Amino acid sequence: MRDYLTNYYLFINTLTLIISGIDKIKAKHAKWRIKESTLYMLSFLGGAFGMVISMLLFRHKTQKNKFIVIISLAFALHLFILCLVVYKDFL
To answer: Which among 35, 4, 32, 39 is positioned nearest to 18, based on CA atoms?
Structure first.
């Protein structure tokens, strides 16, 4: 179970980081953008860590308070889930 979960989180966070980076590049060149709802969905599916990394690395969407709040909620949710999985034997 842990191997599956580890692989899933690595995949979804890498994917989210790449897609967010693509969106940042498109924003700089005034091209067609990736919808915020897609970025939210990826974050809530487990890519919140990748999204936070992209916000720090690329300074992507850091001026949008709504975006920051929603990503923070997704981050907290997945941090809680990971803590439950890792520390379930101690509970």
So the answer is: 39
C-alpha–C-alpha distance, residues 55 and 67, integer Å? 10
The secondary structure of the chain in percent helix, strand, coil, rounded to multiples of 5, reads 80, 0, 20
Tell me the residue length of the chain. Answer: 91
- What SS3 state is found at 38? helix
Cβ neighbours for 38, distance < 8 A, ≥ 6 positions apart: 19
Instruction: Say how far apart CA 74 and CA 20 lie, in whole Å.
Output: 15
Q: Kindly report whether the global pTM for this prediction surpasses the value 0.85.
A: yes
pLDDT higher than 70, residue 91: no
pLDDT for res 87: 85
